[in-house]
Amino acid sequence: APERGLPMFSPISINLDLTSACNFSCTFCVDSKLINTGKSLTLGEIKKTIHTLHSHGLLSVILVGGGEPTLHKDFEEIVHYIKSKRLQVGVVTNGSRLEKIETVAEELEDKDWIRISIDAGAEGVYKDLHLPKHHVTLGGILDKAKKVKKKNPVVSLGYSFVVVWEGVEINGKRLPPNMEEMARSVELAREFSFDYISFKPCLVRLNESQRETLLKNVGKTKEEEIIDQIRVALQ
Question: Which of 88, 56, 71, 89 is nearest to 18 (CA)?
Answer without folding.
Answer: 71
